[in-house]
Amino acid sequence: MNPYRVIIADDHPMARLAIRSLLDPDPSFEVVGEAVNGEDAFQLCGELQPDLVLMDINMPKWSGLEATREVKKAYPHIKVVILSVSDDVGDLITAIQFGAQGYLLKNLEPDDWINYLHALLCEDSLPSREMATRLFHHFRQEELGDELKPDVLTPREREIVMYVGAGRTNREISDALVIAENTVKNHIKNILDKLQLANRVQLAAYAVRHHLLKK
Question: Where does the record place the HTH luxR-type domain (predicted)?
């Protein structure tokens, strides 16, 4: 398999060097470009067509969030992970709203970075458990409004939502339910379509709001 092509966007040279040093030993990743601000990151995406952009949240010209929004508009296939020193749940929610697929804290252990990125790129990820917990508490406080109720789901779909809400990966769900991993992925896609949700993070929050957590 070809390595994942990565752009690192951070206005601090030492930060870019540190991120590169994490990725270079892993043959799954190839750093194809570096950007010093959000506008440069957007332009490099057009030129290099990476698989992944690691985007610092605070940069000159365009912030990481602004750049993420523009990248996702122009190149929706490119995955964006916001990098931050802040575990403020508001930043996480904003990143998701702007189209980011992930949110990494810069102070996480190197192995956690690599494992998270592998999970994200194989479309089997959630934010770190700590960040997910903060997100869930935020969503607990929101009004449900006209959101579709769980009774639109089949028993199997409800069961899968329970596991997603508990932070289980597709592999863990497939092992628990004794079904193929691809079957789990298909179920989750159908559930997202049915509930009109955009991604696993929103689905996990949905599970919390509707008390569908797996014990």
Answer: 146-211
